[in-house]
Amino acid sequence: MIKVLILYYLSLKPTHGYEIQRFIQINHMDKWTKIQSGSIYYAINKLQKEKLIILKEEYGFSSKARRIYEITDKGREELKNFVEKELDNEIFPSGSDKFIIYPLLNTLDKQSMILHINNHINKLEEKISYLKDWEKIKINNKSLGVERISFEMMISNLEYQIKWHEALIEQIDQCINVSKDISNLISKFDFSNAEAIESSTSDSIEKLKQEILNNPEQASEKLDELIRKLSK
């Protein structure tokens, strides 16, 4: 996921690894997904070798050098491919990359997303049907409690995954709007300058998302307000 987040960030503007690292840290992404900010420079090197990004310019010398990267056309195509692929992936109970997929939704067209999501829901429903059939065969009044609960946990998890994806389709327009405004925020604000940023900033970002969902017509005004706060 870290490679995709780098591609996403660079699709919005050329920047250096430190800014992306700070964005991850400020938003606590490493706390509830598999993203690790410490692996960002390794991922950048990999992306450069794969010709998905290129070095645009470099400031400073040796270890203090700041390297500015930009995405290539191949990188933009790879980003779209990943978002489509991620929509087909299952959600893990915790630490799932899919929990932060909605900021990337504006990289795909709406109908393509809905198609992928509906196809994935169908696959989840097939798995539930299979598990329920197998549960009837395996579970009886002599079964151990751990066996019974194992089936309950698997089925329940799949059912919640379906609810998550149905909510995504139901609010697809709002999610796309949030995605666009998060992209706009990243484009306008340099997160690497937020050295003294406090937890209230993360609260402000979360509040912005909610205000965009509830009052999309005021999204642009609220976004400008948040950028002014971040830039102080």
In short:
By secondary structure, the chain is mainly alpha-helical. The chain has a single domain, classed as Winged helix-like DNA-binding domain superfamily/Winged helix DNA-binding domain (Arc Repressor Mutant, subunit A).
Tell me the CATH topology: Arc Repressor Mutant, subunit A
* Helical amount: 55-70%
Order of helices and strands: HHHHEEHHHHHH
Structural class: mainly alpha
* Low-confidence segments: none
Overall CATH architecture: Orthogonal Bundle
Radius of gyration: 21 Å
Notes on the protein architecture:
By secondary structure, the protein is mainly alpha-helical. It has a single domain, classed as Winged helix-like DNA-binding domain superfamily/Winged helix DNA-binding domain (Arc Repressor Mutant, subunit A, Orthogonal Bundle). 65% of the residues lie in helices and 6% in strands. The protein has ten helices and two strands, in the order ααααββαααααα. It has a two-stranded antiparallel sheet. A hairpin with a 6-residue loop joins strand 1 and strand 2. Helix 6 runs antiparallel to helix 7. The chain is elongated and about 70 Å long. It starts with a helix and ends with a helix. The mean pLDDT is 81.
